[in-house]
Structures are given as structure tokens and as C-alpha cells.
């Protein structure tokens, strides 16, 4: 896998830059994009780069092919979109709006599958849990909220629930600047930072705060060590603080309790952080227009990447597989992939389209056969699947089309059955937890 560094700026002239991580050589420069913080992401399996852009009251979401500097698709959302996040397959994109609403789009069709009011003020950051079942959002209202994505598509469950969110963490007193999730699936930890100069560690399984760490300055960026022994916090004083996740507090620390060290290179405010896949290389963007590549073992900068005059507000790692032309030539492309034109998706819709009926707004998981192209998508909505079936029906009754049609029908049946199984499991787990809680209460009363 080849790792490429992508960095963006809020300056329209600087745009988005890309460099090879190992050599530091610059690659493509994507212009005409003024990117807000937390709004740059890649859809590697689709070979796409995605960002929101805001300039002169012109709010857009832009798609680029990774190998072309020109914008491929422009979308015009209903309001300015700040933070963006996607699932690991690049099938769905979730955006946070200035009004406090969250939007969920499907990339293949461009359909806005869901929208809900999440916070009282604009969204500042979004992230997904390790198993991608939970969405964690941070806002300028100082709250961190946890959302079950399955719940957001369960109309009956939403009507019965007291709140749409699973947890509401409201201990920060000022704007939330960043959130990061650990690797324990739905039992992982979440770290949030705020302009109140604190970072808080939360438990997703218990729904409570585990630790509060006070820093010498405001923290704007967080990156969790892959081993989850510590997390790195980028400060407005130009330092990257190292805070312990598992160690006991150290009252004698020169920085404060739980802060075990720092990285410093006399930079301006640190605005964004991300780890490489090796778990040792840390990348930081700052207001001085530079991207610094750190070796966390030696705690030294090993490379400087110059982005431009404007401050760097997004840094991501794009992992591109090295696929030879021979492999591509011998890999058959499924008919559905050709028809869907996955490399260049349609624009993202502005509103939830209610004219397609109940079926068109449901997310479905498709199960791949072992002989399918591994680069084909295994997640899509029932709207896309219905269009695939309709295309095959209109294409005639050839043997290959009939086989593909039958495969899609079977996938629809398996998907519906799996959704029911997951709902039953979810309800069973809720009942077990409720019974255990009642048992503990009765035991305590006795």
C-alpha cells in the first residue's frame, strides 16, 4: 500500500496538496477549494477525494478523482456543511450542518437518505466508532452526542425512544473542537477536546466520563495512539501534548495530571493530527502552512511538507493499493459496476426525496460472493439495488443478465433477513441489560 498525505487550507489559493509520505515529493495540487476544518476525506475504494468548500457564500461539496486536479462533481447542500466523515468503504458520507443538523448521503446514488436535528448550534466534528455502528458528533454548543445509525433508520424505534441519541455528554463548558474514537468496537473509548482547555475520555459502553485532563492551552486536534496507551493533543501554543490513557495521575508533572510529555518544533497553533498505518508516524498541520511528519519514538520531526501561505486545517492519509495493469486486465468488472459508474458519482441531493416511497430511503447491506471483484461495493441502498434489477430486466433475458438478476434477488432476501436478525439481537441485548440492572437494584434493596 502506498501512503499519500493530503492537506487542505481555508485559503482558496492554497487548495488541497498531496505528497508521497515516504519520499516527501509533491504530487497533485487540487485548486479552487476553501476547505473548512474536519471536512476533507478520501473514498479510496472509489478513487475519490471529497471536501466541503465555502467561499463568498457559495457552499458546495466537491468530488475529485485522485488522479485529476479538476473538480469532477459539484453538489449544493441545503446549508453550509462543515465536518465530513464516511464509512470505510466510501459508500456513505455524513456531514454536519451549520444549523446543527446531520445529513447522511449515499455516494452511489447521491440520495440524501436521512437528516435529523442533532445539536442546538453548528457541528464542529464527527467521527464513527470502530465498528461504524455509532456516530459521535461534537458541536459549538459544548455537547458530544452518540447516535446509533441503525436507530436512525428504525422508524418504530425512534417513535418509542425518549431521545434520538444514545448518549449526551454535556460536561464541556465551551465549544467542542475535536472527537476521536478508539478501537474497541461499540465498547471503545471516545476522547473529546474543547475550548475550555480540557480533554475528556468517555466510555461508549457505560455512557460516562472516565477521565478529565486539563491542558495549559486550548486543544484543537486529537489523535489516539493505535495501542491506546496515550493520545496526542495539538495545542494553540504550537505544542503536541502526550496524555496517558491508562496510567495513574502524576501530580508532579510539569504540564498537569496525566500529561506525560510533549512534541515541539516551534510551530504556530497545531490545527490537525493523524497517524500513519505504522502507528509510529504522526502528521500534524499548523497555522504556519506546514505539515510536519513526526517519529513518535524519537519525538523528532523527520520531514516538513510546505502546503502554502494559508493555515493547514486538514491532514489525512490516503492509502492507495499498487495494482498492476496485468491484474486489472485479468479482473472482470461486474455489469452492475459499469452501469452505476461508481468512479464518478452523481451530485449529492439537497433534500430527502419523499417521492420514492418507503423503500427508497432504506440502507441495505449486500453480501459479496467470493468471486466478486473485491473493489466492487458491498454497501448500497435498496434504491440502487432496485435500479440494478430494473436495468437487468430491460437489458433482455440473456444468460449472464439472468444470473446477475437472480444473484441480486438473493442478496435482497439475505439483506432483509440479516436486518431482522440484528434488530432481534439488539432488542435481546437491551432486555438482558434491563434484567441485570433490575436484579442489581433488587439485590441492593434486600
TrEMBL record:
In the UniProt record, does the keyword Repeat occur? yes
Q: Which UniProt keywords apply?
A: Repeat, WD repeat
Tell me which GO cellular component terms the UniProt record holds: nuclear pre-replicative complex; rixosome complex
Q: Where are the WD repeats?
A: 116-149, 169-212, 263-304
UniProt-listed GO biological process terms: DNA-templated DNA replication; rRNA processing
The record ties this protein, via InterPro entries, to:
WD40/YVTN_repeat-like_dom_sf (IPR015943), WD40_PAC1 (IPR020472), WD40_repeat_CS (IPR019775), WD40_repeat_dom_sf (IPR036322), WD40_rpt (IPR001680), WDR18/Ipi3/RID3 (IPR045227)
- The transmembrane segments are none
Keyword Repeat attached: yes
Name the PANTHER family for this protein.
Answer: WD REPEAT-CONTAINING PROTEIN 18 (PTHR18763:SF0), WD-REPEAT PROTEIN 18 (PTHR18763)
What's this protein's name?
Protein ROOT INITIATION DEFECTIVE 3 isoform X1
What is the scientific name of the source organism? Iris pallida (Sweet iris)
